[in-house]
Amino acid sequence: MDTLLAANSLAEYLHTNGVPVVGPLDDSTAMIVAAVVHVALVGAWFGLPAGLFIWAERKISGRIQDRLGPTRTGGKFGWLQSLADGIKLIQKEDLVPKDADGLMFRLAPYIVVVASFVGYIALPFSDGWAAMVLDVGLFLTLAVLSLEVLGVILAGYSSGSKWALFGAMREGAQMVSYEIPMAICALCPIVTAGTLNLNEVALLQSGGAWNWNVLHPFNFFAFFVYFTCATASCKRAPFDLAEAESELVAGFLTEYSGFRWSLFFLAEYASMFLVSGLAVVLFLGGWDDGFGIIVAIKKAFPDFLGTFIANVIGLKVFLIKSSILVCVQIWVRWTLPRLRIDQVMTTCLKYLIPISCFLFAGTVAYPLVLAKMSGQTSIIGPPAGERLVQPRSASATSRLEPNGTNPASVQVSAASSEGSQP
Amino acid sequence: MQPIDPNPFLIVGAVLFVCGVVCMTTKRNGIGVLMGVELVLNGANLNFITFSRCTPLGLDGQVFSLFVIVLAAAEAAVALAIALNFYNNHLTIDVDRGDELHG
Amino acid sequence: MNTTQLTLFWLFAALTCGGAIAVCVSQNVVRMAFSLVLTLGSTAVLFLLLGADFVGATQLLVYVGGTLVLIVFGVMLTATGPFTRIKSSAAGGILSGLIGIAFLFIVASTVTSVRWVDSDKGQGVASKIEFGTHSKAVASHFNPEQQGNTTRQLGLSFLSLRADRDLKFGIPPAPVEESNTAPVIPGESVAAAALPLNSNPKLSVGYLLPFEIVSVHLLVVLVGAAYLARTKRRTKS
Description:
The complex is a heterotrimer.
Chain A: H1 9-16, H2 27-64, H3 81-91, H4 102-118, H5 137-145, H6 148-158, H7 162-193, H8 198-204, H9 217-233, H10 245-248, H11 258-282, H12 293-300, H13 304-335, H14 341-374, H15 394-399, H16 407-420
Helix pairs in contact in A: 1-2, 2-11, 2-13, 3-11, 4-6, 4-11, 6-7, 7-9, 7-14, 9-11, 9-14, 11-13, 12-13
Chain B: H1 6-26, H2 30-54, H3 59-90
Chain C: H1 3-25, H2 29-49, H3 53-77, H4 90-113, H5 133-140, H6 151-158, H7 163-166, H8 176-181, H9 208-236
């Protein structure tokens, strides 16, 4: 009954120490306050990247096409362009076509927004700085991301327009197909780390760039496959078949206008940031700076303030890395032409899925082969198990034993060692 | 360890089950019947999870519900393929029209 | 359950039941599908509330993200016109509604008349979390084992290893004092959890074989569904 709001140090703090005026709060009040604070924080991170990256996209696309992009709104570089866009969109009339299924048509944008918003729930921005540090973090994030397609299909179907329906069908086929290689490639670093908890995955890569999963020979390729699939699952060009404006007017967005239309875009940019953040956590070391600075700060100042400052630096590192990946997505969008729908499906089903399966099998076999040959499960840096600051329990350490090729023997030995202690 | 009263969860499971059965029996749309099956399976799943939490059934309940979820997905795939075939032969998805073998 | 959890439970229980009833009542297939999304998603939240994180996430991924998309595709491929609806007769609907209510009454009264939880026997995979566990988790950088985190134990049980039963850090199905005195029944390892493993040579049974069977089954289903969906196109053209 407790997992939903459990990993919540704020609730705990409020419960034990209390707030200045009111005093210690009881369980449920503390949990509600903590939940509201976390939702507000995550909500800020949901809205902010959207505004920022819409502006960035306009500027970058302008520069790529030898234009200036926005220059007037809010100063020299058009800083306030996305705000102005937002105000313009909110003022527009909320149209529902006569032939549309009104209820579904109005609901669809909210499903999309909720799906990409809930995806942020387990994303760690810095060590322990996630709304919920879940043991099924990656799994839940992928699950929630897969809900987005439902909103898109509903939007297309309920619009009562053939352009919208075509766009939705394409989108459904594309997203459902690309989910498979994306999930398999996301599992490669999970196998390397031995946990689904995103916080632990990032923690295992901390301490230097040589620990990052992207330097693992199979994860290196998995990263690129993952990023391709992530771009496709965000409906970004060159995979934006769902809203291909030269063929389908605007795909499933054809009948939408004003605020509901902007919700789709909010969700698109938010999920761009989300999949980039996932890529950073899984492959690029999360909040690790690559030189061991953050780990050194934490070691030198293990008190609250030192840890806090290290976490803030980690947060910035994480945001910079994710933003770079988002900029790569923008760059790709404005330089590559759109694929045809059959090319998109061929890319996924004939190439990406076999490649990702091969990479997954390779990631599983790699440490076993290495352990047989050299007695150590990684070439660069210490094995993952030795990078832990504190081993979790007998199960966690024995799982990562270098020569523990047979999980059964490992588990039994762990059990017997536990059993021998009275 | 906080004790949990299983009864509210079991009643929700019962509602799911009964809705599923009613849906299966009343819907003439083939895909509607399929949705009824999904509801029934979900009611059973909820019971499994409740018992895994509240009784010494333990982890087995969660394992069973995982199997149920996976098999339900497989069942939905096959049933949809059958529904598509039915539609191609009858140009409708109304299950009452599939009465050629009715003497 | 504290107040927050109770509130969440009632909220999502209401959503679950409301969605299920809407599936029965609605005549439009796409609305039915949407109500089903609501029901299955809320059920996933109920799973999370019961401390089954992994099952809840699987429910979202497989059911809502996979099966329902498939169903919506089916709806679209079998629609003869925009927003088609196949109506059932009103009398039949009322009759089945009455029978359904009676049936629900029987099932619910049967279910509630049993005392499921024996307070002496302890609970199942109860996710034990109290205030204070999170700071410990942050200090050690990891979540505590008992926080609804059954992922590893589930994975091991699919490999036929019952960490929850055979190892000491698993959750004992029975209290320690009781099972120390209880005789070890061959093949039945309830007592094994509290005892050191060496004194009980029998390991609990896992789920490796069912897991493999399900894997093969899924492959067969994949091939079969693809075959069924393809052949009809050939006969038509």
